[in-house]
Amino acid sequence: MAAQTEESDTAREQTKAEQDVDQVRQRAVRDQQRLDSGAVTSPKDLANLQREIASLAKRQGDLEDVVLEVMERRESAQERAGELTERVASVQSKIDDATARRDAAFEEIDTEAAAVTKEREVVAASIPADLLKLYDKLRQQQGGIGAAKLYARTCQGCRQELAITELSEIRSAARDTVVRCENCRRILVRTAESGL
Predict the structure, then answer these.
(1) What's the whole-model pTM score?
(2) FRET label pair with 193: which of 49, 63, 75, 135, CA 20 to 30 Å apart?
């Protein structure tokens, strides 16, 4: 934006400088025509007119130098604006690509979440209501995880190794008994890898 502003500012500056040069040039041409026409006969007026023409020529040269300097700055600003525009386009392309990939990932996650939700509904229907209520309560309290695997005598929810007395109680409990971790209170899921 700054580069584009600089370019438009130098464009205006160049236009104004070129207009100044044109005004001086037109005045010098007018004065030269007056001088060449012979309308001015007084030697003093002729000398003044010649001095003014010389002064206008010097002024025109100075203004033309200003125009060249402004043109160089404008060209530099145009190059910078073009380079930055290309970089913005490149970044925008990367943003568009990342956004498309993100949207595709969200769509995939949404599809997977819908499938898992359906699967959960089917499984939840086969679980006793009081156990499901306990699980949902624990899940809400424990950041989304209401049950954890008991693996090698360690609760995978809190990553704490269970005490020997807890392990003895779990080992002696019936297979359909709901056992919970003493540390995090999650429901423990017993498997062959539980270390009981």
Answers:
(1) 0.44
(2) 135
